[in-house]
Design brief:
- This protein is mainly alpha-helical.
- About 85% of the residues lie in helices and about 0% in strands.
- Helix 2 packs parallel to helix 6 and helix 4 packs antiparallel against helix 6.
- It is elongated.
- The model has no long low-confidence stretch (mean pLDDT about 85).
Length: about 170
């Protein structure tokens, strides 16, 4: 190849093909992606804990109503479904607002990046962060995260209510 020919023709020459730099950049990108996933998992865990505490608070505030429902024959599944549906709606609303905020932020950053596109600073930012465009798969991921938040909210709420009702029995 070229490296062998260069060494033969000019023994003191060195060839820098940027392999080390590309490997390091690739490793850094992988670390950033893994960190992003870890942050999302931590946020989802925090959301689940917040829903659990909110459900317990709602149960404490509705204690009399829950006792009346039990008295008139409502089973634990009915009560758990009522709390679950409430927290699914709250989770969908929160996911919708969070998703719209994320999309708006990406849109604003994309607009600003396009305004500065001819400057060396913009090229550096694009090299570091990439283009501020998420495409259809990105929008799909935002919608998926919103749905996951709602499902987690519903499931955690249901689990919390069922556990609380078992402790009361």
């Amino acid at each position: 190849g070229f490296g062998a020919t260069l060494r033969r023709e000019v023994p003191t020459a060195t060839l820098d093909d940027h392999r080390l730099w590309v490997r390091r950049l690739s490793a850094m990108a992988g670390t950033i992606i893994a960190s992003g996933f870890a942050i999302v998992l931590l946020v989802l865990t925090a959301a689940a804990l917040a829903v659990a505490f909110a459900t317990r608070g709602a149960m404490a505030g509705s204690r009399d109503s829950v006792e009346v429902l039990h008295f008139v024959g409502a089973d634990d599944d009915f009560i758990a479904r009522e709390f679950q549906s409430r927290f699914i709606r709250l989770g969908l609303r929160g996911g919708l607002f969070g998703g719209l905020a994320a999309i708006a932020t990406i849109g604003v950053l994309g607009f600003l990046a396009s305004r500065w596109s001819a400057t060396p600073e913009a090229e550096q930012l694009q090299a570091l962060f990439g283009a501020f465009e998420i495409g259809w798969t990105g929008y799909g991921a935002v919608i998926l995260v919103a749905l996951v938040v709602a499902v987690i909210a519903g499931l955690v709420s249901r689990f919390t209510v069922r556990r609380h009702l078992r402790m009361l029995a």
